[in-house]
Specification:
Blueprint (H helix, E strand, L loop, with lengths): L4 E5 L2 H14 L3 E5 L6 H7 L6 E5 H10 L5 E4 L3 H12 L5 E6 L2 H12 L7 E5 L2 H11 L5 E6 L2 H9 L5 E6 L3 H33 L4 E6 L4 E4 L1 H7 L18 H7 L5 E8 L2 E12 L2 E11 H18 L15 H14 L5 E4 L6 H11 L7 E5 L5 H9 L17 H4 L3 E6 L6 H13 L1 E3 L6 E3 L2 E7 L3 H6 L5 H7 L2 E4 L10 H16 L8 H8 L6 H15 L6 H13 L13 E2 L2 E2 L6 H15 L4 H8 L3 H8 L1 H7 L1
Helix pairs in contact: 1-8, 2-3, 4-5, 12-13, 16-18, 19-21, 20-22, 24-25, 25-26
């Protein structure tokens, strides 16, 4: 982590104290050894852009603050106790006093303490503001035999003491306490953290604005354009660079921007025609102390909103209001899958909310539909929605419906939401982890009260709905990270079902592959045989991160590309190589079909094992039946019979 605090030190003791405090507080601090007369001021000026705050003390801090206005300067204060301690030690020497200090408020403090001590008539003042003045005061100090010099501990004063050590001149140095140094570093840390939070907030807001589907335009109180996001560029066909930092009243500014700004008054869901395009416009004035500081304008093409709504409705229509699948449609006999099915069957007997978690492609919706069809709500509606497919505003209206006149373009008579449509049935909320905090809050109320209020409505509607939800995320982790409400999480997950990935139930690859081959044969008009045992083993060695859906797509491609010229096993190796980015699927040694003079067989009926031997030898000799017959010591007719007649008999 880079240092965002610069400490310009005026003495070695302070540098060491800051290093210790920096380690103790885990606050990175860059230390420049040298006060104002040794390049500290110049270094701070030249490197100010690399830091968020500068810490120093004495006159050096005062000069840095006067020269740098872009970032704050924190001064390590000398307390009255620090001054009194120094003067007490100086007075004990019973010699005339000379005050040596940079011209600053620190010098005023020293003089005040000197007068307070009662030694005012005796002290000489040696003040300086730059190197040349310091040299002059140094020459004067050299003549002050039998005097005690009181100065702030800094490199130049320490150097003077070293050079005058053979003279009868005493030196008393005043240094800030460790507590005051720590206080200054803590203040600097607070500034850095505050600035970091502000930077993060600014970046977050910029990301929201830049990636919003709505055009966003902001104009300050003087009518100058201060922001213009990419969506605004796309909708209006105007480049941001041509309008940013320019006033709306300039004659060359597009008239559309003046229309969008209007009088800067508050406006929601106003339809505005711009260059022949209908825009839905919201205008929010921002005021401070009864003064207009900025106006935020957001807008969308009405056609875009209609297109989104049409797309959402088509997605819902394609699903229908019925559940098509049952538990018998779930293919596989692995222990992991059977456990999940058994638990889901028990869940179906209740009316509690169920949260289904599983990776993409594990069949979450298949389980949801099966649970609905096995429940006592099977005769009621089944409504499904993908929460990640719709923007927040559209998702809210789809879930809860809206009243007539709720917003511009609202359907006459309003519209029932999906919770109403699912009354006495089941609603399935897919990708539940994607909903916004606002939707989470409304959804929680529906689950608690079993009632909904349409957008813009004034009548509470009771609903009897079972909520099933699914996610491919770890929802509990989102709760811990503050991205999902814990109360909603527990409401949704009264019962939880975890679906196993395909890599944890590879024995199910055989029945799944067989089904997908048959389905693709029917759809594509092909006649590909079921895959061999070796082919299935090849598929089982791949991890299938896309789970059953990925296997389905792979088998579909395999069947479509199969032909009489290419053996299925060869095509599988080739397609897996393309699929995984490897040159070919790798085979473990114990799964190799032929290795030298050894074969690997599956133990079974003798006839089946004989057939395996013949088929593997045919693979090894590229189908040369004469060579197989010679090596096995049987006739060619027997080879033919073992691969055809016997195989046919075993499959009957």
């Amino acid at each position: 982590m880079r240092s965002r605090i610069l400490f310009v030190s005026i003495c070695p003791r302070a540098s060491e104290q800051v290093r210790r405090i920096s380690e103790e507080l885990d606050v990175p601090v860059q230390i420049f050894e040298g006060g104002m007369t040794k390049g500290g001021l110049q270094y701070a000026i030249e490197n100010q852009d690399d830091f968020d705050v500068i810490v120093s003390h004495g006159g050096t801090a005062a000069h840095i603050e006067s020269c740098i206005g872009s970032i704050p300067t924190i001064t390590i204060k000398l307390s009255i106790a620090d001054f009194l301690d120094g003067f007490e030690r100086a007075i004990e020497r019973e010699q005339p006093l000379a005050l040596l200090c940079v011209k600053s408020e620190v010098l005023s403090e020293m003089e005040r303490v000197a007068r307070f001590s009662g030694r005012a008539p005796d002290y000489k003042l040696l003040a300086y503001s730059h190197r040349e003045e310091f040299e002059t005061q140094y020459n004067l100090a050299a003549t002050l035999d039998s005097h005690t010099l009181i100065g702030i501990s800094c490199y130049c004063v320490l150097g003077m003491r070293e050079q005058l050590k053979d003279r009868n001149i005493g030196f008393v140095l005043i240094s800030p306490s460790l507590q005051n140094i720590k206080k200054a570093i803590l203040s600097a840390k607070s500034i850095v953290e505050s600035k970091g939070r502000e930077e993060l907030k600014a970046k977050r807001m910029k990301s929201i604005v830049d990636y919003s589907a709505q055009g966003i335009l902001s104009i300050d109180g003087q009518g100058v354009v201060t922001s213009f996001n990419p969506a605004a560029e796309r909708i209006l066909g105007i480049r941001a660079g041509t309008v940013l930092a320019r006033a709306l009243d300039e004659t060359t500014m597009p008239a559309t921007l003046r229309d969008l700004h209007g009088e800067g008054d508050f406006q929601l869901n106003q339809i505005l025609k711009a260059d022949g395009t209908d825009l839905l416009v919201n205008r929010i004035p921002v005021r401070a102390n009864d003064r207009l500081e900025e106006t935020i304008v957001s807008f969308q093409r009405v056609t875009d909103i209609q297109r989104l709504e049409t797309k959402a409705r088509m997605q819902l229509l394609s699903k229908g209001l019925v559940a098509k699948h049952r538990f018998d449609d779930i293919i596989g006999s692995s222990a992991a899958l059977r456990t999940a099915i058994d638990r889901a069957r028990r869940f179906a007997e209740t009316s509690a909310s169920i949260l289904i978690e599983g990776e993409t492609g594990t069949g979450k919706e298949l389980f949801v539909q099966s649970i609905h069809n096995a429940s006592d709500r099977r005769d009621g509606p089944f409504v499904a929605i993908n929460c990640a497919a719709l923007p927040e505003s559209l998702l809210e209206s789809e879930l809860f419906g809206y009243a007539e006149g709720a917003f511009t373009g609202a359907k006459r008579g309003g519209k029932a939401g999906l919770f109403e449509l699912a009354h006495n049935g089941t609603i399935f909320l897919d990708e539940i982890g994607e909903i916004s905090p606002a939707i989470q809050s409304r959804l929680l109320r529906v689950l608690q009260e079993r009632e909904i209020l349409r957008i813009g409505g004034d009548r509470v509607i009771k609903v009897n709905v079972r909520v099933l939800s699914a996610t491919n995320k770890t929802l509990y982790r989102m709760v811990q990270e503050g991205r999902f409400r814990d109360d909603l999480f527990f409401r949704l997950g009264v019962l939880k079902l975890q679906l196993p990935p395909l890599r944890d139930r590879k024995e199910d690859i055989r029945p799944l592959a067989d089904r997908f081959v048959r389905l693709t044969n029917e759809a594509a008009g092909k006649a590909v045989d079921d895959l061999s045992t070796d082919d299935i083993r090849t598929l089982q060695r791949y991890s299938w991160p896309g789970n059953v859906r990925e296997l389905d797509h792979f088998i579909e491609k395999l069947v479509i590309l199969s032909d009489a010229r290419t053996r299925t096993s060869t095509l599988i190796e080739l397609l897996l190589g393309e699929h995984t980015g490897e040159t070919g699927a790798r085979r473990p040694a114990d799964d190799t079909a032929c290795d030298g003079d050894r074969l690997t067989l599956e133990v079974g009926p003798l006839k089946e094992m004989e057939r395996q031997i013949v088929e593997k030898m045919l693979e090894r000799t590229n189908g040369n039946k004469v060579e197989v017959a010679r090596r096995l010591g049987i006739s060619r007719v027997t080879v033919w019979n073992k691969t055809k007649a016997d195989a046919a008999g075993l499959r009957m």
